[in-house]
């Protein structure tokens, strides 16, 4: 059996283990949440975001399904409400500051803030072996800046809690800094992005700007960027790196006001983003986000997960 077949077998075994784990209900002792616990999911109208919304609500939380398209989002929330779940809709475009402000005001007025933020909204314009960077700016802006926008806007609204508020960033293995494949070749940049002690937001923003500049100038192909889905990989590398940076910044908060932030890769999922060509369902892809959001153990922060296990950045 070859390496990739062995890896595939391991992954399938792990998915089976997880589907068993999911049949074990959380005990009362583990359950720190209730219907008063408020989770916000971006891009909740379809795909993995819709499933994360559904699963969190099925665990008994109140979930705010957000979507940039009000009609689609309203209909998606209605489907879940009709299933008896505490799901409510509000419009939110993670790139529109007016929309973000209106959402935050509404959330504060109606729910007094939130306990969990899932940054799921993202775009990708490549499929199969395509590697166009035609939409690189939109990809980096939505996936990285959109995630940052929501974190910055919602941190002040996160409710004090003895178990800590939580942020889960939906990311991708394609954006690994030290993965076996698809990593950036510039050792200096890798060192800067990998050293969390000296890492700054300017370093991450600088890497994105430099990539987008090369795209504009038509020189990106020799820039040593990831070779597969380059724009998307760069955007998710930024999300992963920003997750670690924010974990460090947030670690100063006093007990009772802690915020834990982690990211995860859902796997290759049958959604619109992959042209439904993935190898797992949206339900399976949502699992690790829900598990992370509900972790009973405190103080897990600044980590990267897949299939309910920590993986290397
Ligand atoms: N599918 C995979 O194999 C896979 C693998 C690794 C990681 N991921 C990640 O998983 C997450 C969910 O992806 P998916 O597969 O479920 O894709 P999807 O079906 O294309 O859903 C993406 C969601 O993001 C929303 N969105 C895009 N731009 C937005 C904006 N500016 N403001 C608010 N919402 C916006 C979309 O809204 P519209 O409906 O209005 O477009 C949609 O609801 C993404 O972060 C993705 O990168 C997916």
TrEMBL record:
Family: Belongs to the short-chain dehydrogenases/reductases (SDR) family.
Origin superkingdom: Eukaryota
InterPro entries on file: CBR1-like, NAD(P)-bd_dom_sf, SDR_fam
PANTHER family found in the cross-reference section: (+)-NEOMENTHOL DEHYDROGENASE (PTHR43490), SHORT-CHAIN DEHYDROGENASE_REDUCTASE (PTHR43490:SF99)
Cellular component aspect of the GO annotation: membrane
Molecular functions (GO terms): oxidoreductase activity, acting on the CH-OH group of donors, NAD or NADP as acceptor
CDD domains noted in UniProt: carb_red_PTCR-like_SDR_c
Pfam families tied to this protein: adh_short
Keywords tagged on the record: NADP, Oxidoreductase
Top EC category: oxidoreductase
The keyword NADP is annotated on this UniProt entry: yes
Protein name as catalogued: Short-chain dehydrogenase/reductase
Enzyme Commission identifier(s): 1.1.1.-
